[in-house]
Amino acid sequence: MIADTLRRVVLPIYLYSFGRNDYGQLGQGTSDLNAHPTPTKVGTSTWKAVAGGWQHSLAIDSDGYLYSFGYNNYGQLGLGDTTNRTSPTKVGTSTWIAVAGGYYHSLAIDSDGYLYSFGYNDYGQLGLGDTTNRTSPTKVGTSTWKAVAGGCYHSLPLGGD
Fold first, then answer.
1. How would you class 94 by CB atoms within 10 Å of its CB: exposed for 0-12, middle for 13-18, buried for 19 or more?
2. DSSP character for 73?
3. pTM of this prediction?
4. What's domain 12-34+43-159's architecture?
5. CB of 64 closer than 8 Å to CB of 46
6. Tell me: the pLDDT tens digits for 152-161?
């Protein structure tokens, strides 16, 4: 009986970061070139998904909101600008179920299953039919998706119609 009760307890899931932090990609509120070799909690929020890109990071909190932080030279944080962020910053008001980071670009699937992309797009890796960079999440077609991964200059969604 006690074992069954313990299995049903859901503990909060916190985000931790460590490593290089030259653009604030660790989400600790600072940026520096020093090594950060010890896992350190990022704020007090609870999270359900996380992804690392090239010097930027993305996370979905327990309420489904997307946050981004780190290097933002091409708009890969999805915040409508190209300003770096050293702390998790909320991306819009939509809710999300999956997120992926690529090389200067990012991808996310919203709660309706639609894919959005933003950031660097010189090779068409945003899937938008052009090579224009985007600084805000832009919907990719009308298909729905289940999962997504970001590569160096490419993207890989799973599902679709």
1. middle
2. T
3. 0.93
4. 7 Propeller (2.130)
5. no
6. 999 999 997 7
